[in-house]
Amino acid sequence: MGSKERIARLKEETRLNILDAALDIVKDEGWQSLSMRKIADKIEYTAPIIYEYFANKEGILLELTRKGYIILAGEVRAARDKHDTPEVQLEAMWVAYWNFAFKYKELYQLMFGVDMNCCELKKKMPEAELSDDLIWDVIEKVITVENPTEDFVCRKYYTFWSIIHGLISINLVNKGRDAEMNQRILKDAIRGIIKYINE
């Protein structure tokens, strides 16, 4: 490996270390506690080195948000690909969405502004649409109405998203039920929407 490749690899490792440190701080102290100084202290660098990789805290938040959307899309896609019928795919995809929210709680909070001041980061990246598009495509397959309008499909997508996001938000701020009850509520909601999706 040449010196240019080694330098590039080291720079990428440092960039990833900065992002990992930011996420570790958030897991321990919450999003409001994140600062460039704390990140520098965590990885034992000076703050100016952090600024060589990210212009400001928003740059770090943007990159973590992008990472979250990429992971979410991958998990939604994997859930879809395990099933053959659109109705079962749709349920599996929303359950994967739910599971992502609790497996990657801090990323979900950042991506969707739960229990924090929401950044308008979603508008700045194409990755934000990856999971939305996957779910939208399966919703269209479940709809049996002839030539549904985009508004009709959009309404169904937002019906699903509102319910699922609402349930996740309730649970992220610790006001939900136990895990078994949450799964029943989640599946009842998904199946109920699928049952009446053509109305």
Report strand %: under 5%
Terminal Cα span? 61 Å
How many strand units?
0
H/I helix tally = 9
Main beta sheet: strand number and arrangement?
Answer: none
CATH topology of the largest domain: Tetracycline Repressor, domain 2
Helix content: over 70%
Under the CATH scheme, which architecture of the largest domain would be assigned? Orthogonal Bundle
Total count of domains: 2
Low-confidence runs (pLDDT<50, min 5 residues)? 115-121
What is the CATH C-level name of the largest domain?
Answer: Mainly Alpha
Provide the succession of SSEs: HHHHHHHHH
Write out the CATH superfamily name of the largest domain: Tetracycline Repressor, domain 2
Class computed from helices, strands and strand pairing: mainly alpha
Organism: Pedobacter ginsengisoli
DNA-binding region: 35-54
Keywords: DNA-binding, Transcription, Transcription regulation
Protein name: TetR family transcriptional regulator
